[in-house]
């Protein structure tokens, strides 16, 4: 079964959205690319951020083809000074920040014994510190404006064992979920909502580009079969499924929703085996 899109309409009309990780490792629908494009189709002005500007070529093309407004920006979101400059550049470009989407991340295989310490530090920085830093620099601006919405991307690895030992990835994504809950409660009275999308084992370009090499010696079909076997719905979604959940949480339709998660996994984490 293929993934389908709903028509986003003007659900984010004239909102300004910073999308962190708007690029992708290859052609197709990664989470960040899908979020940036869908938000633009919904009327948002997109400040598209990635460490590698070239990774956003397809993202920018798709937004421009849809008649959207997008500004690309290169930023290492593990660097506080760089994040501060990025947020200020968005403010100078569009005047405000209504939505922040955090969607950078990556995994390294191994438990505490097998995983090198430097890879642990890198995973924590990319997956968790980046969320802390973007929130740190965006929240004061949102508070001064009188509100905003933050959507963070975690992973089912942050709540369950999902098939392989990847302790740093799992720990950092669990941290994203709890960071979101804490910030949501702290800032609720200031009109700022914070929620998390928790994707499961989607078929994104990352599968072919990196995961197959890490886990099954490059056999993509073997990896896809093993992932599919865990999904009760019987098919794998892609980045557009993550984007649809993020769009809802960022929109005014979710005005009474904060400090919680939407799991996008085809029922995988509901299984007991």
Written description of the protein model:
- The chain is α/β, with parallel strands linked by helices and 273 residues long.
- 43% of the residues lie in helices and 14% in strands.
- The protein contains 8 helices and 7 strands, in the order βαβαβαβαβαβαααβ.
- It is globular.
- The two termini are 24 Å apart.
- The mean pLDDT is 93.
Main pleated-sheet profile: 7 strands, parallel
Low-confidence stretches: none
Question: How much is the average pLDDT?
Answer: 93
What topology, given as strand order, has the largest sheet? 3-2-1-4-5-6-7
Radius of gyration, rounded? 18 Å
- β-strand number: 7
The N- and C-terminal alpha carbons lie at a distance of: 24 Å
Helix content: 40-55%
Task: Report the β-strand fraction as a percent range.
Answer: 5-15%
How many alpha or pi helices?
8
Structural class: alpha/beta
Order of helices and strands: EHEHEHEHEHEHHHE
Shape: globular
Offer a concise description of the structure.
43% of the residues lie in helices and 14% in strands.
Label this structure with key terms.
273 residues; alpha/beta; 7-stranded parallel beta sheet
Give the helices and strands, then pairings.
Layout: E1 16-20, H1 31-41, E2 45-50, H2 57-65, E3 69-74, H3 80-94, E4 99-102, H4 117-145, E5 148-153, H5 167-187, E6 192-199, H6 205-215, H7 220-228, H8 239-250, E7 261-264
Parallel strand pairs: 1-2, 1-4, 2-3, 4-5, 5-6, 6-7
Helix pairs in contact: 1-2, 1-8, 3-4, 4-5, 6-7
């Amino acid at each position: 079964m293929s993934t389908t899109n709903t028509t986003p309409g003007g659900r984010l009309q004239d909102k300004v959205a910073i999308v962190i990780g708007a690029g992708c490792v290859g052609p197709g629908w990664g989470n960040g690319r899908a979020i940036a494009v869908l938000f633009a189709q919904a009327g948002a002005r997109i400040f598209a951020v990635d460490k590698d500007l070239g990774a956003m070529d397809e993202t920018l093309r798709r937004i421009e083809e849809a008649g959207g407004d997008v500004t690309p920006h290169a930023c290492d979101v593990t660097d506080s000074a760089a994040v501060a400059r990025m947020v200020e550049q968005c403010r100078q470009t569009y005047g405000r920040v209504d939505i922040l989407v955090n969607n950078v991340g990556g995994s390294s295989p191994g438990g505490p014994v097998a995983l090198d310490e430097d890879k642990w530090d890198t995973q924590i920085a990319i997956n968790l510190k980046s969320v802390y830093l973007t929130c740190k620099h965006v929240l004061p601006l949102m508070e001064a404006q009188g509100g905003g919405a933050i959507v963070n991307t975690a992973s089912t690895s942050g709540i369950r064992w999902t098939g392989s030992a990847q302790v740093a990835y799992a720990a950092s994504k669990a941290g994203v979920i709890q960071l979101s809950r804490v910030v949501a409660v702290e800032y609720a009275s200031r009109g700022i909502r914070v929620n998390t999308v928790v994707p499961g084992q989607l078929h994104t370009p990352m599968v072919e580009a990196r995961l197959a090499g890490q886990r099954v010696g490059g056999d993509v079909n073997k990896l896809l079969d093993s992932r599919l076997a865990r999904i009760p719905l019987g098919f794998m979604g892609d980045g557009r499924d993550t984007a649809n959940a993020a769009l809802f949480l960022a929109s005014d339709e979710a005005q009474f929703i904060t400090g919680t998660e939407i799991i996008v996994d085809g029922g995988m984490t509901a299984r007991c085996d």
